[in-house]
Amino acid sequence: MLTRNCLSLLLWVLFDGGLLTPLHPQPQQSLEAEPRENVVQVPGRRSSAQRVKRGWVWNQFFVLEEYMGSEPQYVGKLHSDLDKGVGTVKYTLSGDGAGTVFTIDETTGDIHAIRSLDREEKPFYTLRAQAVDVDTKKPLEPESEFIIKVQDINDNEPKFLDGPYVASVPEMSPVGAYVLQVKATDADDPTYGNSARVVYSILQGQPYFSIDPKTGVIRTALPNMDREVKEQYQVLIQAKDMGGQLGGLAGTTTVNITLTDVNDNPPRFPKSIFHLKVPESSHVGSAIGRIRAVDPDFGQNAEIEYNIVPGDGGNLFDITTDENTQEGVIKLKKPLDFETKKAYTFKVEASNLHLDHRFHSVGPFKDTATVKINVLDMDEPPVFSKPTYTMEVYEDTPVGTIIGAVTAQDLDAGSSSVRYFIDWKNDVDNYFTIDATEGTIATNELLDRESTAQYNFSIIASKVSNPLLTSKVNVIINVLDVNEFPPEISVPYETSVCENAKPGQVIQTVTAADKDLSPAGQRFSFRLSVEASNKPNFTVHDYRNNTAGIEARRNGYNRRQQELYFLPVVIEDSSYPVQSSTNTMTIRVCRCDSDGTILSCNVEAIFLPVGLSTGALIAILLCIVILLVIVVLYVALRRQKKKDTLMTSKEDIRDNVIHYDDEGGGEEDTQAFDIGALRNPKVIEDNKIRRDIKPDTLRFPRQRPPVEDNTDIRDFINQRLQENDVDPTAPPYDSLATYAYEGNGSVAESLSSIDSLTTEADQDYDYLNDWGPRFKILAEMFGEEESYNPDKVT
Questions:
Q1: Are residues 130 and 204 in the same domain?
Q2: CB neighbours (10 Å) of residue 498?
Q3: For the chain: N or C, fewer Cβ within 10 A?
């Protein structure tokens, strides 16, 4: 009862005494205004004492967020002790939201919120209040600052800012294996009530996974979850505020969880036996079939290695893994032959490459299957008995000699005959031939080992029943050497001996060379020829190792007596037939010092002064040679000049007949006509045919009667002209023959100016006009003095 009375007295003092004006019936809101110069009087007491206080003391105001009422929300009331309620005080408001969010009654000081507020947008507002005298406009109190806080309500649900989530966990993981942690955020005030207190739970995804309600950690809830059974899981997570109580707001997100693969499954063949059919013509190394073992695992856990179990037929085949399909590819290691074996059986093992030790207890991670291969018969080409053939033949073997044979057979069930022929692309020279039926190879030309020592060509065999099926083999023929070349001395063929040589002294060691292919152990023997063995100058010492020494037999040699010696050496080989040759060596005698060093080998050096050096001797010889050349050139020029003078002299008159219409050799052509017989009429020209033309037919020589001495030259010339006119082989053009014989007692005297005692001025050629038209041209030529030329007559 006492407590109640005390509380009532306190409230009366606060409200009735003017110390505090109530703002709102809510206990959280309060405004305290203390009068600066006012005395508070308490009822029932008298006191003359006065207490001076501040005019304004502010606390914070509170306003609810998200207010949805029709009237403005009342916030609180401002009041000053100086306000007597007669309208002399005016209240003003400034700061955050003044006039836009908050308004104040200037007379009463009531504050209202004129729109809905959101704490998450702005949690508080700072404002300033002041009391002003209406008449003077002067502040009655200093300006004071206060805060209006927006009181939070639960208007925001939790949100997963990172959702939806993706996570993975290995399959076959134990219970409680960590998967992922999720987090939800609530925008409400975490310091006021339970609006921001979030609790997590699973709405979808049980019983596979669980979540911690406070931390949001997701873990596995079932053991041995198998990826091969189910790989993807979608879990729905809820976050609820208010501590999960009824009425709280909630948000959800999705977590996609994938089970990753582990090697928990061994490979398995879908069947125990695989059947393959392979043609016998399959090439070595080719793929002849595929088999596959199934592994439900994924990635490297599903990688399979295949191996052939040693056993029947396994050595003919090999198996590899196709990395893309994980299939076992069976390949052929050796050729198949249907006629030899028609079927093969072996086992193949498939195993994982990457094992997981946690699952060894499950069993061996491998499987085995049987592979049966049936060989199919194919029409195959002939098969040679050897992969290559090597034959030998001696050079110069007669053409047609058989040197060997090749053999090919058809191994198919229905055996066919085989035909042989040479691949001419490789044997263009056609040195050999082959029998098409027997396969024998014979020479087609003479062979020379020194020209070609080996022949390499191909023989092709084809089936008669199917010529398109062919096979080829390589044939090598080595040409063997026949001892046909004699051995010869290797260079040098010339050597020297000192004048002071002693008997038995070796002056040169010689070796031999043979163009033939020397067999192993070939031996050459050296000896002097029979005619040289009796001379006491030199001898040949055979060392019996294919070398020999030339030895001196005399005690010294004299260059003045003999400078050169020729030593015939006979060399024989040891092949069959034995070949030998005589090689002549030239031995020059030289002057040497006491140590055997050669000083000079020229015999001229004997007669030269001892004091002259070699350079001086060479200079003297060059001078002599130059002088000789100058003398020879001088003599040649003199002769040439003298010859030109004789040729241009008018006194050099010769009897020459020139045919200007003849395309022969000119004046120096002495083969066109032979006028030697004309100089002596007694010479009978038997079987003389004209050499300036080639007659069409042979004619018998004309028999000319001898001309007697003192015969008139006119009759002689007429006789010759008549003979030429009736001659059927004479050329069809005019020809003039001049005869040097003039006879005795000629009226015209001599026609030549040779040995003539008269000069040109004494000659008179007018009589030529009397000889008739045949000499008209000659008369005109000799009748004109300025054109006179006794050497040319046309």
A1: no
A2: 23
A3: N
